[in-house]
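pls ignore typos typing on phone
adenosine monophosphate + seq
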Amino acid sequence: MITREEISQLIKGYDLKKLAIATIGSHSALNIFKGAKEEGFRTVCICKEKDLIVYKKFPLVDEFIIVNDFTELLNDTVQEKLRKLNTVIIPHGSFTAYLSTEKLTDSFYVPMFGNRQLLHWEASREKQEEWLKRAGLRLPKTFASPEEIDTLTIAKLQGAKGGRGYFLANSPESFSKKVKEMIRRGLISKEDAAHIHLQEYVIGVNVYPHYFSSIIKDDVEFLGVDKRYESTVDAIGRVPAAEQLEINLNPTYTIVGNIPLTLRESLLPELLTMGDNVQKTAREIAPPGIIGPFCLETVITDKLEIYTFEISARIVAGTNVGVGTSPYAYLKYGEKMYTGRRIALEIREALKQKRLSDVVA
Ligand code: AMP
Ligand code: AMP
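k done
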Protein backbone atom coordinates (compact mmCIF):
# COMPACT_ATOMS: atom_id res chain seq x y z
CA MET A 1 0.00 0.00 0.00
CA ILE A 2 1.35 3.38 -1.02
CA THR A 3 1.53 5.58 2.07
CA ARG A 4 0.29 9.13 2.48
CA GLU A 5 3.89 10.03 3.28
CA GLU A 6 5.01 8.85 -0.17
CA ILE A 7 2.26 10.87 -1.83
CA SER A 8 3.21 13.96 0.20
CA GLN A 9 6.74 13.51 -1.11
CA LEU A 10 5.45 13.46 -4.69
CA ILE A 11 3.55 16.68 -4.09
CA LYS A 12 6.71 18.36 -2.84
CA GLY A 13 8.06 17.91 -6.36
CA TYR A 14 4.98 19.54 -7.91
CA ASP A 15 4.61 23.02 -9.32
CA LEU A 16 1.43 23.80 -7.43
CA LYS A 17 0.68 26.89 -9.50
CA LYS A 18 0.22 24.55 -12.44
CA LEU A 19 -1.77 21.87 -10.62
CA ALA A 20 -3.98 19.95 -13.06
CA ILE A 21 -6.99 17.70 -12.52
CA ALA A 22 -6.98 14.39 -14.35
CA THR A 23 -9.33 11.48 -14.78
CA ILE A 24 -10.26 8.61 -17.08
CA GLY A 25 -12.52 9.69 -19.95
CA SER A 26 -15.79 7.99 -18.99
CA HIS A 27 -18.45 7.81 -16.23
CA SER A 28 -18.42 11.31 -14.61
CA ALA A 29 -15.44 12.81 -16.44
CA LEU A 30 -17.42 15.68 -17.99
CA ASN A 31 -18.79 16.57 -14.56
CA ILE A 32 -15.25 16.53 -13.09
CA PHE A 33 -13.66 18.49 -15.98
CA LYS A 34 -16.35 21.17 -15.99
CA GLY A 35 -15.91 21.62 -12.25
CA ALA A 36 -12.13 21.80 -12.61
CA LYS A 37 -12.43 24.45 -15.33
CA GLU A 38 -14.87 26.52 -13.30
CA GLU A 39 -12.34 26.54 -10.46
CA GLY A 40 -9.55 27.54 -12.84
CA PHE A 41 -7.59 24.25 -13.12
CA ARG A 42 -6.01 22.69 -16.18
CA THR A 43 -7.49 19.29 -17.11
CA VAL A 44 -5.98 16.03 -18.31
CA CYS A 45 -8.00 13.17 -19.79
CA ILE A 46 -6.79 9.58 -20.07
CA CYS A 47 -8.83 8.65 -23.09
CA LYS A 48 -9.48 5.96 -25.66
CA GLU A 49 -9.34 7.08 -29.27
CA LYS A 50 -12.94 6.02 -29.87
CA ASP A 51 -14.21 8.24 -27.04
CA LEU A 52 -12.41 11.41 -28.17
CA ILE A 53 -15.58 12.67 -29.83
CA VAL A 54 -17.07 13.32 -26.37
CA TYR A 55 -14.28 15.70 -25.41
CA LYS A 56 -14.27 17.36 -28.84
CA LYS A 57 -17.97 18.13 -28.63
CA PHE A 58 -17.62 19.27 -25.01
CA PRO A 59 -14.20 20.93 -25.05
CA LEU A 60 -13.18 20.84 -21.39
CA VAL A 61 -9.86 19.03 -21.70
CA ASP A 62 -6.46 20.70 -22.02
CA GLU A 63 -4.31 17.61 -22.40
CA PHE A 64 -5.03 14.09 -23.62
CA ILE A 65 -3.17 10.89 -22.81
CA ILE A 66 -4.40 8.40 -25.37
CA VAL A 67 -4.50 4.73 -24.35
CA ASN A 68 -5.79 1.55 -25.95
CA ASP A 69 -6.86 0.17 -22.62
CA PHE A 70 -7.47 1.90 -19.29
CA THR A 71 -5.08 -0.49 -17.54
CA GLU A 72 -2.29 1.48 -19.27
CA LEU A 73 -2.91 4.12 -16.63
CA LEU A 74 -0.71 1.98 -14.41
CA ASN A 75 2.24 1.97 -16.87
CA ASP A 76 5.31 3.80 -15.65
CA THR A 77 5.35 6.10 -18.67
CA VAL A 78 1.77 7.21 -18.12
CA GLN A 79 2.32 7.70 -14.39
CA GLU A 80 5.47 9.70 -15.13
CA LYS A 81 3.57 11.89 -17.57
CA LEU A 82 0.80 12.52 -15.06
CA ARG A 83 3.31 13.58 -12.43
CA LYS A 84 5.09 15.83 -14.93
CA LEU A 85 1.78 17.54 -15.59
CA ASN A 86 1.37 18.11 -11.81
CA THR A 87 -1.88 16.18 -11.76
CA VAL A 88 -4.19 15.10 -9.02
CA ILE A 89 -6.28 12.13 -10.17
CA ILE A 90 -9.99 12.05 -9.42
CA PRO A 91 -11.10 8.42 -9.19
CA HIS A 92 -14.58 7.44 -10.40
CA GLY A 93 -16.53 4.27 -11.21
CA SER A 94 -14.40 3.35 -14.21
CA PHE A 95 -11.31 3.05 -11.98
CA THR A 96 -12.74 0.24 -9.90
CA ALA A 97 -14.52 -1.25 -12.94
CA TYR A 98 -11.39 -1.56 -15.10
CA LEU A 99 -8.44 -1.57 -12.67
CA SER A 100 -7.72 -3.81 -9.72
CA THR A 101 -7.95 -2.31 -6.26
CA GLU A 102 -4.55 -3.79 -5.36
CA LYS A 103 -2.85 -2.16 -8.33
CA LEU A 104 -4.47 1.19 -7.49
CA THR A 105 -3.42 1.09 -3.87
CA ASP A 106 0.01 -0.48 -4.35
CA SER A 107 1.47 0.66 -7.65
CA PHE A 108 -0.12 3.91 -8.73
CA TYR A 109 2.29 6.66 -7.74
CA VAL A 110 0.15 9.66 -8.57
CA PRO A 111 -1.68 11.75 -5.94
CA MET A 112 -5.33 10.71 -5.86
CA PHE A 113 -8.13 12.82 -4.43
CA GLY A 114 -9.61 10.57 -1.77
CA ASN A 115 -8.56 7.99 0.76
CA ARG A 116 -6.80 4.99 -0.79
CA GLN A 117 -7.27 2.85 2.30
CA LEU A 118 -11.02 2.99 1.96
CA LEU A 119 -10.79 1.36 -1.47
CA HIS A 120 -10.22 -1.95 0.30
CA TRP A 121 -13.23 -1.42 2.52
CA GLU A 122 -15.31 -0.62 -0.49
CA ALA A 123 -14.09 -3.52 -2.60
CA SER A 124 -15.18 -6.22 -0.15
CA ARG A 125 -18.89 -6.81 0.49
CA GLU A 126 -18.16 -8.07 4.01
CA LYS A 127 -16.11 -5.03 4.94
CA GLN A 128 -18.70 -2.68 3.46
CA GLU A 129 -21.36 -4.36 5.54
CA GLU A 130 -19.29 -4.03 8.69
CA TRP A 131 -18.70 -0.34 7.98
CA LEU A 132 -22.36 0.48 7.29
CA LYS A 133 -23.62 -1.54 10.26
CA ARG A 134 -21.18 0.18 12.58
CA ALA A 135 -22.55 3.48 11.28
CA GLY A 136 -25.99 2.36 12.46
CA LEU A 137 -27.56 2.02 9.01
CA ARG A 138 -30.37 -0.42 8.20
CA LEU A 139 -29.15 -3.12 5.83
CA PRO A 140 -31.06 -5.83 3.93
CA LYS A 141 -30.67 -9.28 5.47
CA THR A 142 -28.02 -11.46 3.86
CA PHE A 143 -28.10 -15.23 3.49
CA ALA A 144 -24.95 -17.29 3.92
CA SER A 145 -26.23 -20.09 1.68
CA PRO A 146 -29.15 -20.69 -0.74
CA GLU A 147 -30.76 -23.10 1.75
CA GLU A 148 -31.46 -20.12 4.03
CA ILE A 149 -33.54 -18.22 1.46
CA ASP A 150 -36.95 -17.55 3.03
CA THR A 151 -38.05 -14.38 1.31
CA LEU A 152 -37.66 -12.65 -2.05
CA THR A 153 -33.89 -12.52 -2.55
CA ILE A 154 -31.56 -10.83 -4.99
CA ALA A 155 -28.57 -12.90 -6.11
CA LYS A 156 -25.59 -10.69 -6.92
CA LEU A 157 -22.45 -11.69 -8.72
CA GLN A 158 -19.05 -10.77 -7.38
CA GLY A 159 -17.86 -7.46 -8.82
CA ALA A 160 -20.71 -7.32 -11.33
CA LYS A 161 -20.74 -4.34 -13.64
CA GLY A 162 -24.10 -2.59 -13.75
CA GLY A 163 -25.98 -5.44 -12.12
CA ARG A 164 -25.48 -7.75 -15.09
CA GLY A 165 -26.27 -11.35 -14.25
CA TYR A 166 -28.25 -10.52 -11.10
CA PHE A 167 -31.44 -12.51 -10.57
CA LEU A 168 -34.21 -12.95 -8.04
CA ALA A 169 -35.25 -16.11 -6.20
CA ASN A 170 -37.88 -16.80 -3.57
CA SER A 171 -36.77 -20.16 -2.11
CA PRO A 172 -33.83 -22.60 -2.21
CA GLU A 173 -35.67 -24.49 -4.99
CA SER A 174 -36.28 -21.46 -7.18
CA PHE A 175 -32.67 -20.39 -6.59
CA SER A 176 -31.27 -23.68 -7.82
CA LYS A 177 -33.61 -23.67 -10.84
CA LYS A 178 -32.66 -20.10 -11.74
CA VAL A 179 -28.91 -20.69 -11.38
CA LYS A 180 -29.08 -23.65 -13.77
CA GLU A 181 -31.09 -21.62 -16.22
CA MET A 182 -28.73 -18.61 -16.02
CA ILE A 183 -25.75 -20.90 -16.68
CA ARG A 184 -27.55 -22.64 -19.54
CA ARG A 185 -28.38 -19.30 -21.15
CA GLY A 186 -24.73 -18.24 -20.79
CA LEU A 187 -25.66 -15.27 -18.58
CA ILE A 188 -23.40 -16.39 -15.76
CA SER A 189 -20.53 -18.88 -15.50
CA LYS A 190 -20.16 -21.78 -13.06
CA GLU A 191 -17.40 -19.79 -11.43
CA ASP A 192 -19.80 -16.83 -10.95
CA ALA A 193 -22.41 -19.16 -9.49
CA ALA A 194 -20.00 -20.29 -6.79
CA HIS A 195 -19.53 -16.72 -5.56
CA ILE A 196 -23.05 -15.36 -5.48
CA HIS A 197 -24.01 -12.94 -2.72
CA LEU A 198 -27.57 -13.40 -1.48
CA GLN A 199 -29.43 -10.42 -0.13
CA GLU A 200 -33.03 -9.89 0.91
CA TYR A 201 -34.77 -8.02 -1.92
CA VAL A 202 -36.30 -4.92 -0.37
CA ILE A 203 -39.50 -3.82 -2.06
CA GLY A 204 -39.41 -0.10 -2.46
CA VAL A 205 -38.00 2.61 -4.68
CA ASN A 206 -34.31 3.19 -5.13
CA VAL A 207 -32.82 6.44 -3.96
CA TYR A 208 -29.18 7.43 -4.27
CA PRO A 209 -28.21 10.40 -2.05
CA HIS A 210 -24.97 12.20 -2.93
CA TYR A 211 -22.79 13.42 -0.09
CA PHE A 212 -19.52 15.32 0.10
CA SER A 213 -17.20 14.87 3.04
CA SER A 214 -15.09 17.99 3.31
CA ILE A 215 -11.87 17.55 5.24
CA ILE A 216 -11.12 21.25 4.89
CA LYS A 217 -14.47 22.32 6.38
CA ASP A 218 -14.87 19.24 8.59
CA ASP A 219 -18.45 18.73 7.42
CA VAL A 220 -20.56 16.30 5.41
CA GLU A 221 -22.61 18.14 2.78
CA PHE A 222 -25.69 16.90 0.94
CA LEU A 223 -25.43 17.82 -2.74
CA GLY A 224 -28.15 15.91 -4.56
CA VAL A 225 -30.14 12.75 -5.15
CA ASP A 226 -30.81 10.57 -8.19
CA LYS A 227 -32.56 7.40 -9.13
CA ARG A 228 -31.42 5.04 -11.82
CA TYR A 229 -32.82 4.15 -15.18
CA GLU A 230 -32.00 0.51 -15.73
CA SER A 231 -32.55 -1.90 -18.55
CA THR A 232 -34.53 -4.15 -18.36
CA VAL A 233 -35.99 -3.68 -14.89
CA ASP A 234 -37.49 -0.29 -15.79
CA ALA A 235 -39.04 -1.75 -18.92
CA ILE A 236 -40.78 -4.72 -17.36
CA GLY A 237 -43.81 -2.72 -16.25
CA ARG A 238 -44.54 -2.02 -19.92
CA VAL A 239 -45.05 -5.70 -20.68
CA PRO A 240 -48.31 -7.16 -19.34
CA ALA A 241 -47.92 -9.85 -16.67
CA ALA A 242 -49.34 -12.63 -18.85
CA GLU A 243 -46.66 -12.06 -21.51
CA GLN A 244 -43.97 -11.71 -18.86
CA LEU A 245 -44.81 -15.22 -17.70
CA GLU A 246 -44.99 -16.55 -21.25
CA ILE A 247 -41.51 -15.37 -22.16
CA ASN A 248 -40.10 -16.03 -18.68
CA LEU A 249 -38.93 -12.44 -18.31
CA ASN A 250 -36.27 -11.82 -15.64
CA PRO A 251 -35.18 -8.33 -14.67
CA THR A 252 -31.64 -7.20 -15.39
CA TYR A 253 -30.09 -3.98 -14.12
CA THR A 254 -27.87 -2.53 -16.81
CA ILE A 255 -27.51 1.15 -16.06
CA VAL A 256 -28.49 3.42 -18.93
CA GLY A 257 -28.82 6.75 -17.16
CA ASN A 258 -29.90 8.64 -14.07
CA ILE A 259 -32.90 10.74 -13.14
CA PRO A 260 -32.78 13.64 -10.65
CA LEU A 261 -34.88 13.38 -7.51
CA THR A 262 -36.02 15.62 -4.74
CA LEU A 263 -37.15 13.90 -1.59
CA ARG A 264 -39.98 14.24 0.79
CA GLU A 265 -38.49 16.66 3.32
CA SER A 266 -39.32 14.42 6.28
CA LEU A 267 -36.82 11.88 4.93
CA LEU A 268 -33.99 14.37 5.20
CA PRO A 269 -33.25 14.13 8.94
CA GLU A 270 -32.47 10.42 8.65
CA LEU A 271 -30.55 10.72 5.37
CA LEU A 272 -28.44 13.60 6.68
CA THR A 273 -27.68 11.73 9.89
CA MET A 274 -26.74 8.62 7.89
CA GLY A 275 -24.16 10.64 5.93
CA ASP A 276 -22.64 12.05 9.11
CA ASN A 277 -22.47 8.63 10.74
CA VAL A 278 -20.91 6.93 7.72
CA GLN A 279 -18.13 9.51 7.79
CA LYS A 280 -17.74 9.23 11.56
CA THR A 281 -17.20 5.48 11.24
CA ALA A 282 -14.91 5.92 8.22
CA ARG A 283 -12.74 8.20 10.30
CA GLU A 284 -12.37 5.42 12.86
CA ILE A 285 -11.58 2.65 10.39
CA ALA A 286 -9.31 4.66 8.08
CA PRO A 287 -8.45 8.19 9.19
CA PRO A 288 -9.33 10.85 8.11
CA GLY A 289 -12.29 8.91 6.67
CA ILE A 290 -13.90 9.71 3.36
CA ILE A 291 -12.23 12.54 1.50
CA GLY A 292 -14.72 14.07 -0.92
CA PRO A 293 -17.82 12.60 -2.55
CA PHE A 294 -19.64 9.43 -1.55
CA CYS A 295 -23.01 7.90 -2.26
CA LEU A 296 -25.26 5.51 -0.38
CA GLU A 297 -27.34 3.16 -2.50
CA THR A 298 -30.67 2.81 -0.79
CA VAL A 299 -34.15 1.41 -1.20
CA ILE A 300 -36.99 3.17 0.63
CA THR A 301 -40.11 1.17 1.49
CA ASP A 302 -43.72 2.28 1.87
CA LYS A 303 -43.11 2.43 5.62
CA LEU A 304 -40.43 5.00 4.81
CA GLU A 305 -37.73 2.65 6.07
CA ILE A 306 -34.40 3.37 4.42
CA TYR A 307 -32.34 0.28 3.57
CA THR A 308 -28.74 0.80 2.43
CA PHE A 309 -27.32 -1.96 0.29
CA GLU A 310 -24.06 -0.39 -0.85
CA ILE A 311 -21.69 2.54 -0.52
CA SER A 312 -19.50 4.17 -3.15
CA ALA A 313 -16.75 6.19 -1.48
CA ARG A 314 -16.08 8.33 -4.56
CA ILE A 315 -17.98 10.35 -7.12
CA VAL A 316 -20.91 8.39 -8.58
CA ALA A 317 -22.23 8.99 -12.08
CA GLY A 318 -25.61 9.78 -10.57
CA THR A 319 -24.16 13.16 -9.58
CA ASN A 320 -24.11 14.00 -13.30
CA VAL A 321 -27.79 14.94 -12.87
CA GLY A 322 -26.58 17.85 -10.76
CA VAL A 323 -24.14 19.38 -13.25
CA GLY A 324 -25.07 23.05 -13.19
CA THR A 325 -27.00 22.74 -9.99
CA SER A 326 -29.38 20.58 -7.97
CA PRO A 327 -31.98 21.76 -5.45
CA TYR A 328 -29.81 20.68 -2.52
CA ALA A 329 -26.56 22.16 -3.84
CA TYR A 330 -28.53 25.33 -4.58
CA LEU A 331 -29.86 25.49 -1.03
CA LYS A 332 -26.33 25.47 0.30
CA TYR A 333 -24.27 27.22 -2.35
CA GLY A 334 -26.62 29.07 -4.67
CA GLU A 335 -26.06 28.49 -8.36
CA LYS A 336 -23.37 26.54 -10.18
CA MET A 337 -22.32 24.04 -7.53
CA TYR A 338 -22.23 20.29 -8.21
CA THR A 339 -20.03 17.38 -7.25
CA GLY A 340 -17.38 17.88 -9.98
CA ARG A 341 -16.99 21.51 -9.00
CA ARG A 342 -17.16 20.76 -5.29
CA ILE A 343 -14.14 18.47 -5.70
CA ALA A 344 -12.18 21.21 -7.48
CA LEU A 345 -13.24 23.74 -4.85
CA GLU A 346 -11.97 21.47 -2.07
CA ILE A 347 -8.62 21.18 -3.85
CA ARG A 348 -8.58 24.96 -4.38
CA GLU A 349 -9.25 25.58 -0.66
CA ALA A 350 -6.65 23.00 0.36
CA LEU A 351 -4.07 24.74 -1.85
CA LYS A 352 -4.91 28.10 -0.30
CA GLN A 353 -4.44 26.70 3.19
CA LYS A 354 -1.31 24.72 2.18
CA ARG A 355 -3.12 21.49 3.07
CA LEU A 356 -3.13 19.68 -0.27
CA SER A 357 -1.65 16.56 1.29
CA ASP A 358 -4.67 16.38 3.62
CA VAL A 359 -7.03 15.71 0.71
CA VAL A 360 -4.96 13.37 -1.46
CA ALA A 361 -3.57 9.94 -0.76
P1 AMP B 1 -18.32 2.87 -17.76
O1 AMP B 1 -16.97 3.54 -17.81
O2 AMP B 1 -19.44 3.65 -18.36
O3 AMP B 1 -18.27 1.47 -18.26
O4 AMP B 1 -18.71 2.78 -16.23
C1 AMP B 1 -17.86 2.25 -15.25
C2 AMP B 1 -18.69 1.70 -14.12
O5 AMP B 1 -19.55 2.68 -13.56
C3 AMP B 1 -19.59 0.56 -14.51
O6 AMP B 1 -19.55 -0.38 -13.45
C4 AMP B 1 -20.97 1.16 -14.63
O7 AMP B 1 -21.98 0.25 -14.29
C5 AMP B 1 -20.92 2.31 -13.64
N1 AMP B 1 -21.70 3.43 -14.18
C6 AMP B 1 -21.43 4.09 -15.33
N2 AMP B 1 -22.32 5.05 -15.55
C7 AMP B 1 -23.19 5.00 -14.53
C8 AMP B 1 -24.34 5.75 -14.19
N3 AMP B 1 -24.78 6.74 -14.98
N4 AMP B 1 -24.97 5.47 -13.03
C9 AMP B 1 -24.52 4.49 -12.25
N5 AMP B 1 -23.46 3.73 -12.52
C10 AMP B 1 -22.78 3.98 -13.63
P1 AMP C 1 -26.16 -2.76 -7.62
O1 AMP C 1 -25.39 -3.45 -8.70
O2 AMP C 1 -25.84 -3.26 -6.26
O3 AMP C 1 -26.08 -1.27 -7.74
O4 AMP C 1 -27.70 -3.13 -7.83
C1 AMP C 1 -28.35 -3.15 -9.10
C2 AMP C 1 -29.85 -2.98 -8.96
O5 AMP C 1 -30.41 -3.87 -8.02
C3 AMP C 1 -30.28 -1.59 -8.51
O6 AMP C 1 -31.41 -1.24 -9.29
C4 AMP C 1 -30.73 -1.75 -7.12
O7 AMP C 1 -31.76 -0.84 -6.83
C5 AMP C 1 -31.20 -3.17 -7.08
N1 AMP C 1 -30.93 -3.75 -5.77
C6 AMP C 1 -29.71 -4.11 -5.30
N2 AMP C 1 -29.82 -4.63 -4.05
C7 AMP C 1 -31.13 -4.61 -3.75
C8 AMP C 1 -31.89 -5.02 -2.60
N3 AMP C 1 -31.28 -5.59 -1.55
N4 AMP C 1 -33.22 -4.86 -2.63
C9 AMP C 1 -33.81 -4.30 -3.71
N5 AMP C 1 -33.17 -3.90 -4.81
C10 AMP C 1 -31.84 -4.04 -4.84
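Residues 26-27, 93-94, 97, 161-162, 255, 257-258, 317-318 surround adenosine monophosphate (ligand 1) (CB under 6 Å). The chain has three domains: 4-114, 125-138+204-238+255-349, 142-200. more later
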